[in-house]
Amino acid sequence: MLDDRKVKVLHAIINSYILKAEPVGSRTISKQYDLGVSSATIRNEMSDLEELGYLNKPHTSAGRIPSDKAYRLYVDQLLKAEKLKMDMKKKNEIKKALVEESQEIDQLIQNSAKIISAITSYTSLAISPQLKESRLKHIQLIPIDEAEILVVLVNESGIVKNTIFRVEQNIPEDQLLTISNFLNHKLKGFTMDEINQAMDEGIFREIHDLKKILDKIIPIINKSLEDIDNVDVYADGVTKIFNFPEYRDLNKAKSFISFIEDKELLIDLLLNDTLEGDIEITIGDENIYDPIKDCSLITTTYRLGDMTIGKIGVIGPTRMEYFKVINALRLFSVNMTEILDMLLGNPRV
Amino acid sequence: MLDDRKVKVLHAIINSYILKAEPVGSRTISKQYDLGVSSATIRNEMSDLEELGYLNKPHTSAGRIPSDKAYRLYVDQLLKAEKLKMDMKKKNEIKKALVEESQEIDQLIQNSAKIISAITSYTSLAISPQLKESRLKHIQLIPIDEAEILVVLVNESGIVKNTIFRVEQNIPEDQLLTISNFLNHKLKGFTMDEINQAMDEGIFREIHDLKKILDKIIPIINKSLEDIDNVDVYADGVTKIFNFPEYRDLNKAKSFISFIEDKELLIDLLLNDTLEGDIEITIGDENIYDPIKDCSLITTTYRLGDMTIGKIGVIGPTRMEYFKVINALRLFSVNMTEILDMLLGNPRV
DNA sequence: GATTAGCACTCGATGATAAAGAGTGCTAAC
DNA sequence: GTTAGCACTCTTTATCATCGAGTGCTAATC
Question: How many angstroms separate the CA atoms of A4 and B12, rounded?
């Protein structure tokens, strides 16, 4: 069905269209890509490719445009054929830049998005670590002054969360310590769900004298653990979309940018996919959301330990420089995993 | 120079232009605004107003467009004349929505930006609290496990910051407590600058046995206090700009959105102004930055105690619904100040 | 002296028409 | 199977006439 020459023609068309963003004619291919056949032959092949669904015609007298199906074929072959020859020098440069700028995890993610957008020239997306079901590692109550107590929570991954709350009457420091110890003893290693369940079962029944303060603290613990699990998304280089002729149309640009502006949708977009695999590519109509049905989304994951905890990627017109983007993202996947390990991972000494 | 009727004509033109975004002709004014004079008279007045710099002509046979100078006059009179009749019902509605959604300060600011953009239909901007020179209120070291210590800092305003760091060898809990107490004793109430200075003066000389751990902690304290002072900006409703006909031009839209995307510039924009005053308005060419020289920026401040600590505002075409925006922002200024007081302020019981 | 009706004039916007150009698809020859 | 050649299609671009909103001036009017 798809003989060797057809594939070559198709690739030539795709390459040309990625480069120029203009419908590709038979003459262009026969002249600029060395296939050794005349434009008439190319015309015949193109006609076949169109029939097979790999090419579209904007109108009779225009050239051809690759379909989503064509990109899919192209990308699959790209991913299969391509050896992962990572440019270690570049990788380490990026790593250095990332580490220097990012002491906090959120900063790391944000900076990654920024750098990716800069080096690929596409809009980048990134989602903060997913630490679903995080387990409590440490809890401590600290008196700030007579009327304020600070609750500090640390989860397994080393993410910390604090809340200050007010109390009517002064609670002696040693009593707070007792409470801290007690809570640590009872709740350490549990997820929020488990803590809730334990409470329903009345693990605190034994101590009546602390009840009043515990009643105040438990909701805080809950909220904080919830907060830790909360995700954030970042986008960078949104206006890069204006550089692509397909977004000369104001309405298209608007709908794209509106989509990117909607954090809820972005989170959904990045999480709905699996968190598996190395590089994931969604092309055009394969996307669920209407506003990006003529975009391609390329994402990669980053890990903490052996858990995949987040995603970072690039979005742009289906006519995307897949090769370049895939390579850039691979660099980041490795780098971020390494950096996260350094920032959050358990010390392995 | 500017007699009463000229002002009336000018206001009519401004109102019409704000509404329609189209050059205003003399006939429109004489028909739709009840000034009791013919279009010819209006024409004469318009000619005078143009000479005085209040009106511009796109070309000979178009109507007139208000100049920045005209908006400035209009706005100044608006601010002077307008009584602050705050819609208390609406104010409290908004307050309720804000309080429910925002437990964290940053969330409060973000939500405010979102709501403001929604009710005004313009792009909103907000900057996180400026707690310049924040003073240390409390510091505590908490052992997480054998190799990790959590440093918790609380500043005067009740903002908390944590960092986990690793130690080679286990430090006994009581020793950490001693260190905490010592640091609290020495550093409480000081700003970062003062802490640095104190260290240069060698306040820690007396205790040699703690030197090793202190050397590790001091940079963390510094970084954390710096971090607390760090500002963040938020923008919401960026794509609203597409709704305005003056941004039908792709390049204009791009340059506007690029500007808004650049956090550095936004911070500068919001901080370069004074932090004084109720409502501040910068019109068109009064703006320093080129990309927004045909925008107006309206901001208001919010306070903590008697210190102005942040700004929130709206940006849009100079043809802006000043009245509506000013009223909306006033509501927010009061609400946010009240909410911040509740979240962070000292308990006054 | 201010106001107004009247009218010539300006200039962008709109739409129709023509010409140019890129590309296809078919046919017939190689 | 490949290719040259050519009629045909459809968009793009340029040109030109027309339309209409609006001005600015003049002369008449209040």
Answer: 72
Q: Is the dihedral of CA A198, A202, A205, A208 positive or negative?
A: positive
**What does pTM read for this prediction?**
0.90
User: Please, is A162 exposed, middle or buried when counting C-beta atoms within 10 Å of its C-beta (0-12, 13-18, 19+)?
Assistant: buried
Whether chain A has a CB inside 8 Å of the CB on B32: the answer is no
Task: Decide: helix, strand or coil at residue A135.
Answer: coil
A311 contacts A303 by C-beta, under 8 angstroms: no
What domains are defined for chain A? 4-66 (1.10.10.10), 87-130+231-344 (3.30.450.40), 136-229 (3.30.390.60)
Q: How many helices (H) and strands (E) does chain A have?
A: 12, 10
SS3 (DSSP) at A34: coil
Distance of CA A20 to the CA centre of its chain: 29
Q: What residue type is assigned to position A224 of the chain?
A: S
Burial A287-312 (b: 16+ CB within 10 A, else e): beeebbebbbbbbbbbbbeeebbbbb
Q: What pLDDT is attached to residue A349?
A: 32
Residue with tokens 């904080």: A224
Q: Is the dihedral of CA B198, B200, B201, B203 positive or negative?
A: positive
The token duo for B236 is 């919401």
Q: Are B122 and B243 spatial neighbours (Cβ–Cβ below 8 Å)?
A: no
Spatial distance between the Cα atoms of B296 and B315, rounded to a whole number of angstroms: 6
Asked if B241 contacts B247 with a C-beta cutoff of 8 angstroms, the reply is: yes
Residue B286, Cβ density class (10 Å: 0-12 exposed, 13-18 middle, ≥19 buried): middle
Q: Residue A258: list chain B partners with CB under 8 A.
A: 239
Distance CA A194, CA B97 (A): 31
> What whole-number distance in Å separates Cα of residue A128 and Cα of residue B249?
35
Q: Is B38 in CB contact (< 8 Å) with chain A? A: no
Compute CA distances A101 → A95, A115, B130, whole Å.
Answer: 10, 11, 22
The answer to whether some atom of strand C lies closer than 7 Å to the beta carbon of A41 is no
Residues A284 and A265: their CA atoms lie apart, in Å, by 17
Q: Which residues in range 52-111 of chain B are in contact with strand C, contact meaning CB within 7 A of any of its atoms?
A: 58-62
pLDDT tens profile A326-345:
999 999 999 999 998 887 76
Q: For residue A175, what are the CA distances in angstroms to A182, A206, A217, B59, B104?
A: 10, 16, 14, 80, 28
Gap between the Cα atoms of B86 and B88, Å rounded: 6
Question: What SS3 state is found at B28?
Answer: helix
**Cβ-defined contact of A261 to B253 (cutoff 8 Å):** no
CA-based nearest residue to B313, from B326, B295, B298: B298
**What is the rounded CA–CA span in Å between residue B67 and residue B240?**
23
Q: Which residue is listed with tokens 């097979």?
A: A52
pLDDT, averaged per 10 consecutive residues of chain B (349 residues), comes to: 92 96 95 91 96 95 96 93 78 91 83 96 93 79 82 81 77 81 84 76 66 74 75 94 92 95 93 75 96 96 85 97 94 91 59
All residues at 6 or more sequence positions from A338 whose CB lies less than 8 Å from its CB, including other chains:
A95
